[in-house]
Amino acid sequence: MEKPLLSGIMDYINKVKLPLHMPGHKMGKGIRDKDFLRNILKLDVTELDITDNLYMPEGIIKEAQVLASKAFGSKKTFFIVNGATCAVQAMMLSVLNPGDSVLVARNSHVSVFSALVLGGFIPRYVSPRISDEFGLSLGIHPSDIQKALTEDIKAYVHTYPNYYGFCDDIKRISEIVKGQGIYLLVDEAHGSHFPFEERLPDSSLKHGADMVVHSLHKTLPALTQCAVLHINSDRIDEDRVFKALSLIQTSSPSYFFMSSMDAARAYMEEEGRKALTSLLCGLEDIIEDLDGLNGIRVLGKTLKERHEIFDYDITKVLVNLRDLGISGVQADRILFNDYGIKVELSDGENILAIFTVADNREDMEYFKDSIKDLARRYVNSGKKGVFNPPYIPEEIPEMVLTPREAFFSEKKWVDFDGSAGKICGEFIKPYPPGVPLLVPGERITKELIGYIKNLLRMGIRIIGTKDSTLSRIQVIK
Q1: Helix 60-72 / helix 255-267 crossing angle, nearest 10 deg
Q2: Average pLDDT of the segment spanning 358-372
Q3: Is residue 66 part of a domain?
Q4: What per-residue confidence (pLDDT) applies to 468?
Q5: Are both 187 and 257 inside the same structural domain?
Q6: pTM for the full predicted model
Q7: Helices 273-290 and 361-378, axial angle in degrees (round to 10)
Q8: 316 and 286 in a common domain
Q9: Does residue 117 carry a pLDDT above 90?
Q10: Domain assignment present for 383
Q11: Number of structural domains in the chain
């Protein structure tokens, strides 16, 4: 009997030596709770009088959520089994009403844009600054947020850190936003490890964000789909949060996932802090060895110094390969085929490797040695400079229809090459990280068409469209 999905995953498992991507448990290596490991299938139970109920927690689930709240430093914490996407949507549904205006960081995850459709909220956008030198989207400066806030805006949704680990001045942002009586909602999906090590950037929980989302599977040893939603101020109506979660989250919550969250939290409090400190020390050493060697640049420190990045997460190792004469997409393939390393992201010039408490010094050294060997092989290839950063659109496309209006509008197919001037009917999202270049309801421009085709030529995958080749696109009739 054929089992294509299972067989394909097993092929990957048998080939990969070092997974430097999510989830943070790294194929189980970071999950050390013996009770969890011994009883994996038995943990898949249901709501019983002794197992409690996520939607009316009075026993063991309530106790586990209280412990999580204390560990992360929030007022109250909810377990989320539908992933951070569900948590972000519930967060916005908890404080906004249909027709409310909300300021949204343009580098937000697609879950934020989905919430605009679900809730009928009216978006205003603030854009991240761009590094033309490296072709990267950076952070959002507090002054840009301050300029974008108007009296009718009820909440601001901020992404912290961004996909590359860049962190904005969240303390100043909180002062600006909350100083105007506006809700600060933070998608801190990639920062769930921040509360457990002082040398990492501060969690937004520390600086008064009203609500915060953590995606535990991204940087902690928890299973995919494990997330938490934190209430962090007295302004939030807990009952409305609960109702929002009940509305959009599964009515059959996984005890397997909830047990994973409980175990991950316990590990981080008991052993994880020490493991995280050790990880940071090791990463500092290998980054120092790699940066500037044979055409290799590790960009965290460089970008912070040159582009007003307030802080960055060292566990996201962003390696620029421009001077080797190979693209990030090519390097990704070479690293997997020749060294058994699979990174989280690759683009025209960069690869992004994610390290977590599941990775040890041997893993870090293997990554370093493999990058060094890659550099030795290609540094004299004679192709330096051919992968210049593509044009990155800084202007936000014109919003002709709200995301909700566009979602429910009739659509038609047109050739993508000839779609300039049309109103987009689909999301166009390079993946990873899944941040939309075009949102339904926005006008397509020639510049965006050229940029997106450039991404496709570099081998970067575009999702959100029905036609994966993007030879055609759905637009509003």
Answers
A1: 40
A2: 98
A3: yes
A4: 83
A5: yes
A6: 0.95
A7: 20
A8: yes
A9: yes
A10: no
A11: 3
